[in-house]
């Protein structure tokens, strides 16, 4: 079993509250961490700051809309 995380994890405001959320994120000094909310003991994906900012900006700009 891994040690408890010291990061402040959050779910998107667009996530449902029924326990079906897929991911949680946490900010770090160098970017962000992403993990499966149903498997919190798994290794999180590390995303560098510039990549995270580009990703979230693309979401806001509608560039990541489903097709």
Give the structure's gist in a few sentences.
With 67 residues, the protein is α+β, with helices and mostly antiparallel strands. Helix content is 18%, strand content 24%.
Could you give the topology of this structure?
Layout: E1 23-28, E2 31-36, E3 45-48, H1 49-60
Antiparallel strand pairs: 1-2, 2-3
What does this structure look like?
This protein is of the alpha+beta class and 67 residues long. The protein has a domain at 23-60. The protein is 18% helix and 24% strand. It is built from one helix and three strands; from the N terminus they run E-E-E-H. It has a three-stranded antiparallel beta sheet with strand order 1-2-3. A hairpin with an 8-residue loop joins strand 2 and strand 3. The longest helix has 12 residues, at 49-60. The protein is globular and about 30 Å long. The model has no long low-confidence stretch (mean pLDDT 83).
Q: What gross morphology would you assign?
A: globular
* Largest sheet: number of strands, sense, barrel closure: 3 strands, antiparallel
Low-confidence stretches: none
Beta-strand percentage range: 15-25%
Radius of gyration: 13 Å
Distance between the termini: 39 Å
Mean pLDDT: 83
Structural class based on helices, strands and sheet pairing? alpha+beta
Helix and strand element order: EEEH
Helix content, binned percent: 10-25%
Number of helices: 1
Number of strands: 3
Strand arrangement, largest sheet?
1-2-3
């Amino acid at each position: 079993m891994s040690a408890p995380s010291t990061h402040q994890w959050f779910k998107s405001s667009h996530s449902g509250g029924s326990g079906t959320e897929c991911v949680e994120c946490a900010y770090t000094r160098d970017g962000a961490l992403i993990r499966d909310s149903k498997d919190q003991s798994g290794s999180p994906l590390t995303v560098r700051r510039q990549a995270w900012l580009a990703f979230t900006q693309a979401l806001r700009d509608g560039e990541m809309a489903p097709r």
